[in-house]
Design goal:
- By secondary structure, the chain is an alpha/beta fold.
- It is about 40% helix and about 15% strand.
- It has a single domain (about 5-140), classed as Thiamin diphosphate (ThDP)-binding fold, Pyr/PP domains (Rossmann fold, 3-Layer(aba) Sandwich), CATH 3.40.50.
- The protein is built from eight helices and four strands.
- The longest helix is centred in the N-terminal third of the chain and has 15 residues, at about 5-20.
């Protein structure tokens, strides 16, 4: 029988592998450098890969997504973590009209490689603005891949 990992351990291990294999991978978002490591998913990343590749960023969903688009156009592969899926809706223009369409708008000449981690259903209480599950909605946006 294979190893048993929690979801958080699997995400953390995948991040380590991606960052070890590809120096263009950067990881940022709210709390990625926190001692608790975004529910343990980013533990140890900053210590291993440094503050240049793993860093916290101010709470502005639109700005975070804009940074990811710009970084992608400059050859980086962003792994961006948002603490709550609901608040990512503030960045839908950047996502839909920027990142998702870029490849098509410029005849396939450029890609914007971004992995966006959106957290749903974690923590002590969710309430109406922390509990939506919009993955199916995102899957209907041309140019996005939902995993």
């Amino acid at each position: 029988m294979g190893r048993k990992l929690t979801f958080a351990e699997a995400v953390n291990e995948a991040m380590f592998q991606a960052m070890e294999m590809d120096k263009s991978v950067i990881c940022y978002g709210l709390g990625v450098d926190d001692p608790k490591g975004v529910y343990s998913t980013t533990l140890g990343l900053q210590e291993k890969f440094g503050k240049e590749r793993v860093f916290d960023i101010p709470s502005s969903e639109n700005a975070m997504t804009g940074v990811a688009i710009g970084a992608g156009l400059r050859g980086f592969r962003s792994v961006m973590t948002h603490q709550r899926l609901d608040f990512f809706l503030l960045a839908m223009d950047q996502l839909v009209n920027g990142a998702a369409k870029w490849h098509y708008m410029f005849g396939g000449q450029n890609n914007v490689p971004i992995t966006i981690r959106l957290i749903t259903g974690r923590g002590w209480g969710q309430g109406p603005t922390h509990s939506q599950s919009l993955q199916a909605w995102f899957a209907h946006i041309p140019g996005l891949k939902v995993v």
